[in-house]
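Example 3.
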Amino acid sequence: MAHRILIIDDEDDIREVAALSLETVAGWEVATACCGTQGLARAIEFQPDAILLDVMMPGMDGPSTFRELRKNPATERIPVLLLTAKVQSTDQRRFADLGVDAVLFKPFDPLTLSKQIAGVLGWK
Amino acid sequence: MAPGKQTVLSEALNRLWIQFLPQMEERVRALESAGAALAAGTLTVDQRSEAHAAAHKLAGVLGTFDLTRGTILAREAEILYATEPETDAETAARLTSIAAQLRVIVASRR
């Protein structure tokens, strides 16, 4: 099944590699946004099956974007996976406490990113 | 994954690497400049912040391009820039060395 994924990340290299990976390996449909504000608008119009959300972004960061997604009836039920290069345990606990569906870590393996996402979301 | 798909992905990743190489090199340059400023005792708050951000970004992306050692080194630099407001000579030498190693690692990928 071709899932629809929205990637929100301010780093264009990460955004493009993730999109390439999900499109090429899994055949999923991917939309991208380069900041939290653009991500909120894209989430409403694209209605993805899941959102891959960077933590550290200028302006509205990942956690703030996540809270806005949950406030909006049009996006409140979309699963959100945080994507972070932070590996310290205090950061990991803080992210888990937000209530996101999963936390994935950078760097990711482009060969297996779609399997990781499908695995944590229970997709076949 | 089918071998055909793997080849397509690998070739596309190589194209993206070439596309984004200038910004990888820019991040390494930020680390080299900060290392030199540290050694000279002239590192500014802005330079430290820029070096920290550059290290964070390199840590997050290099492994994605199969440069795992680069991610490990960049992560070490990120932590040092985040946690060592008063940097001693040993730490400055380590950060300079990391920047030099990252330069080689980034240049080594074709």
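The CA atoms of residues 20 and 110 of chain A lie 8 Å apart. Helices of chain A lie at 12-26, 36-46, 62-71, 89-97, 113-121.
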